[in-house]
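Researcher: We're teaching a course module on how sequence relates to structure. For the next exercise, students receive a sequence and then see the predicted structure as tokens, so they can try to spot secondary structure elements on their own. Here is the exercise chain.
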Amino acid sequence: MSTPSTLRAGRRTNLALLAMLVSALVTGLLGYAIGTPGTARVVTIAHGAFGLGLLLLVPWKSVIVRRSIGRSTQHHTASILLGLLLLTSLAAGVLHAVGGYHSVLGFTALTVHVAAAVLIVPLLVAHARGRRQQLRRADLTRRTVLRAGALGVGSLAAYGTVEAANAVLRLPGRHRRATGSYEIGSGVPEQMPVTQWFTDRVPTVDRLGWQVEIGPRTVTYADLSASPDGVRAVLDCTGGWYAEQDWRGVRLDRLLTDAPADTQSFDVVSVTGYRRRFALADADRLLLATHVAGSPLSGGHGGPVRLVAPGRRGYWWVKWVRRVELTSRPAWLQPPFPLQ
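Model: And here is the predicted structure for the students to work with:
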């Protein structure tokens, strides 16, 4: 028979699991968005700690599961599926963190990690709604705070254990960038994986006849490729790899000198319809690139013309640029991730 104390313990365990899981999902989204190394390192550590911390709660959750068996089977199938997806996501995340970047039939460990996490979201919402756990004043005791602190320390220790294993066993994971990405093809563009946002496809393009509309004017591929502007920048793909390359093309601020006075931002638009918006003040840090490592960009890597956006994750580096649309709307007024 369940006593009030065991019921409270079960409810608190469920609340802790929910908080840890939501935190892992949120930090995972932030990890996709942040490209600057310092901030990305903090987010990556937090994401890993929240994920591994879920495992520390398994002994307490197993007691709750055993206690609930036999009461009602209505939600058991969804609960089992949720648990399997969670274990799959955690296992794939750890595999990516220690094993390097490997693709099997077009899928990587990071792909499986993210896909399982996406599938978890609707199941988690349904699971939480069916088993509502409310935070109560009695939960905010000194003992609860100490237990939460111990869970936090344990979660960080679990993450530290993975990093220590990387170092001691000299696993590929010790070479991860702050974002969690692995170096592939730096200085050798043909070795970079050909990847794009999951809604995009590599189009068929005419390099010599390519033109880019910049507001009311049109710039030819020949004009863009003749420019000496260049930058050494890291393309950090959300697919789990990065490469540092020398890019050449035209700085965008040189092409936007006649922007109307009310212009706040501009959309860089691909021939496929894919787009990202940037503040006008950022134009001097952005490059419309035609060459990488001294050679014309290949179609798979965004040629004839792609955007180079240093300090931003790969989905900001718009491929196959066809237009730059000026707008009076602020740069933040767009979806955080591409929807098209």
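Model: If you want an answer key for the exercise: The longest strand covers residues 241-251. Residues 4-180 form one domain.
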